[in-house]
Design brief:
The structure is a homodimer.
Chain A (H helix, E strand, L loop, with lengths): L2 H8 L9 H10 L1 E5 L4 E3 L7 E7 L2 E7 L2 E8 L3 E3 L1 H6 L6 E4 L3 E7 H10 L1 H27 L2 H15 L5 E2 L5 H7 L4 H10 L5 E4 L2 E4 L2 H8 L8
Antiparallel strand pairs in A: 1-8, 2-7, 3-6, 3-8, 4-5, 4-7, 9-11, 10-11
Helix pairs in contact in A: 2-4, 4-5, 6-9
Chain A binds a DNA duplex through helix 8.
Chain lengths: 229, 229
DNA sequence: TTGGGGGATTGATTATTATCAATTGGCAGC
DNA sequence: GCTGCCAATTGATAATAATCAATCCCCCAA
């Protein structure tokens, strides 16, 4: 692994206060791998071999049931995933695939559990990381149960606008099929909901979207700090 | 706190390997309180003062948005709640209320964070507990996104039947209004879905339910070990 | 025993969402 | 430039779920 990549990982909150020794031990067993777009990295139901960290590219977490599939999360660098399965040494509840060419750091699960037992700072950071992840899922669940699909889209737009620099433009970096699944709707309804939002300050400018009247969009979306962000 | 109650808490996986000293310290600042039915214990948006543990009775975790409310979980003894908020020292994302008269053990949040820093076994147990909770929410999210309301009810019935002793009977211990909310449907649709399930091996016997043909119910419910349990 | 009262059920209607089908619209490769 | 392909859109319809309204059914108190 190159120095730049190692530094990137070192800067993760997860490793922030871990001793140099333990960090080096973790990294010595880890490896960084490149994957093309569309590769399934893990499959729900399998047992965890590695803790995964997205270093570059985009990864989709999804789950299937009865010939249906839904996107549960879309991860960007630098994010860990399947931490809970690694800690519990229990089967994955989600699958993961690359949405773009990606670089993934993989740390053998036993090494993670070992470092956890020996490094108090790492243990503390793991708890914190898990707590953050836990709260993210709770937000997603509230989003699903308390909003309809148009509201979910509107709030996603508001979040993306902020994430992409508050310049009233949102470029769609993932394909609409995946976005629809992430937002809990069909691609058809994503189209229709997007068309509906033209009544609430959103317009299409080519492949991207523009928020012409963010106050109107906010009024429709009713963003809530205990659901979004 | 009485010895019997202290023993109950001591037996929680969360405290299993914690040193006697640290456990006693935690308990010395904790207190056990009785609440009548229908009391709001915590309110989403507030900052956490205590880690809560249901020692007796039933507690509903719920959230509100735009004059709607949804039940996110229903807790029975012995379960901790709002652990993630305590660890992060961040606002609650859920509210909690008693559904029955209940006994709640409350441990001051700073004491929890303090014990976490000083007792490795406690830290390990906390991570494990959080990982378990995390996986529960992921299951809930999958349940919501991958099943319709009748399927959610059918699977809930199967789980309750197992939980209540595999005797093909399920007694409704929480009121239907709350159950409907928990299952992500209106009380009206809970009624209708229950009526529909008579086609799939379920019958009403007074206030309780009977599963006359569990194979038929399973065929309809399509239980999935990566969603249920 | 007899009324209330509140939850539960049922019915009718509307809203939301999914599905299926047809069409459009880019865009890569020729 | 064409052509074909695939995603995106649009339309029509069906399935699912929420809402509103009207009973019904218990259980409890007088």
């Amino acid at each position: 692994m190159r120095q730049a990549e190692s530094d990137l990982v070192r800067a993760l909150p997860l490793f922030e206060n871990v001793s140099e020794k333990h960090f080096d031990e973790l990294m010595s067993t880890a490896f960084l791998q490149r994957f093309p777009r569309g590769v399934t990295l893990i499959r729900e139901g399998d047992l965890p071999d590695f803790l995964h960290i997205v270093v570059e590219g985009t990864v989709e977490l999804f789950a299937s049931h009865d010939s249906h599939e839904t996107a549960l999360d879309i991860l960007e660098p630098v994010t860990t995933f399947i931490l809970a399965a690694v800690i519990r040494d229990d089967v994955y509840l989600k699958s993961a695939r690359t949405l773009t060419p990606a670089q993934i750091l993989m740390i053998p699960a036993p090494a993670v559990r070992n470092a956890f037992d020996r490094d108090a700072a790492f243990a503390r950071a793991l708890v914190n990381e898990l707590a953050v992840r836990y709260r993210c899922v709770v937000r997603s669940l509230k989003n699903e149960k308390l909003r309809n699909s148009a509201e979910r889209l509107a709030n996603w737009l508001l979040q993306e606008e902020a994430h992409q620099g508050n310049n009233r433009r949102v470029s769609l970096e993932i394909d609409k099929r995946t976005l629809a699944s992430r937002l809990g709707m069909t691609p058809e309804n994503l189209s229709r909901n997007l068309a509906q939002l033209s009544k609430h300050g959103v317009s299409k400018s080519g492949a991207d979207l523009a928020i012409d009247d963010i106050a109107a969009l906010r009024q429709f979306a009713k963003p809530n700090s205990l659901i979004d962000q």
